[in-house]
Amino acid sequence: MGGSMLSTHPSTYIKGTSGEELKGKRIVLCITGSVAAIQSPEIARTLMRHGADVFTVMSPMAQKIIHPHLIEWATGNPVVTELTGKIEHVALVGQHSETADLVLVAPATSNTISKIACGIDDTTVTSVVSTAFGSNCPIIIVPAMHESMYNHPILTENIKRLKALGVEFVGPRIEEGKAKIAETKDIVEAVVRKLATKQDFSGLKVLVTAGPTLEYIDPMRVVTNRSSGKMGIAIAEEALARGAEVTVVYGPGATTPPARSRMISVETTEQMYEAVVSELKSKKYDVVMAVAAAADWTPEKPYTYKVSTHKVHLLDLKLKPTRKIIDEVKKASPKTFLLAFRAEYNLPEKELIESAYKRLLSSKADLIAANDAAKEGVGFGTDTNEVFIVDKEKNIIHVQLAPKREVAKKILDVVSERIRPK
Fold first, then answer.
1. Which fold would CATH assign to domain 16-195?
2. Where are the domain boundaries for CATH 3.40.50.10300 in the chain?
3. Where along the chain do the CATH 3.40.50.1950 domains lie?
4. Tens digits of per-residue pLDDT, 160-191?
5. pLDDT at 1 over 50
6. What is the DSSP string of 55-72?
7. Within a 13 Å sphere around the CA of 108, how many CA atoms are in the beta-carbon half?
8. Which of 8, 102, 116, 159 is deepest in the core (most CB within 10 A)?
9. Distance separating the N- and C-terminal Cα atoms of the chain
10. Which residues on neighbouring strands pair with residue 367, listed in sequence order?
């Protein structure tokens, strides 16, 4: 480069690669002196991957755990390690047109939480948070410490005091005698929910099915498919972010549902069928999103013992169809809005849409999202997807290849327009 400097830091090239929920948002990440600070670069970069600009403030103790150079690399922005004549705390979150959209303290030690609650400003982090209070900038705190410290009654009171002032807390996870920092995905989900998402599903109850199911050949071997559950979980996360109360019925191997959802774990298609029907008959759901790739075939007579290849050299299996879950949704709950999914393989676009439309009619669904799993980056096991959304009037909305969370966002936009028309 002949000694010239890039105008844009290379680390910022990842912005928006996982979605644009936080596009245009400026987040101040405050790091305190917990060993959990080693997770802070990952938090910063995940926020960036969802579109955010991240500016970092480190307390003196945090700088003894991770070096500011690492954080500058992670964010592509200079790190505030001390307050100078530039009045960095005011520049970041003061009352002016370029103030940040959110202050995220992750990790937050017991010491820092109590100082914030008492209005003590003796570090870079506490001064930034104090300024954020004065400018009505939203604050999220992510505690991390030993469990015995977290259980201190005065800390408990200080957390209650901060919550009463509108501060949101994420975590901690109580494990191994420690109040560990929340998972990065849960922290980022809280940020997205706070900043980026319209609450058009607020007050709605949503049931999502996700992942594959297993059909047993014998107690150790199964018939299944390559579904990862990522699309269903992305839809559940987006529905939660938009204010819904979400239940996830998910199969084995599926990506773990979001912590704030109600989770029902199943293995077989029959178990998923029974769980969904039971939920719909016992509770009022506004929306069902049938995303799961439930197995279509099950052995007619599964073996009750392990079939040994040393004794059987040719195994004949007779398969029978499983019960179709989406065919029961409207029977169990006629007023529930049903979004169905249909995966095909290597079909021309016209035939893919026609197949989806026929399935929509037969299941009495309100919408159906279809994809072609033969395409690169589409369907099972991928982090991206491409779908065609079809309604009863055969209107078609094409959601082009994008990260599954972005696809989920566009699908829920369509559902929202149908259930809450303007």
1. Rossmann fold (3.40.50)
2. 205-419
3. 16-195
4. 999 988 899 998 999 999 999 999 999 998 99
5. no
6. EEEE-TTGGGTS-HHHHH
7. 31
8. 116
9. 54
10. 339, 391
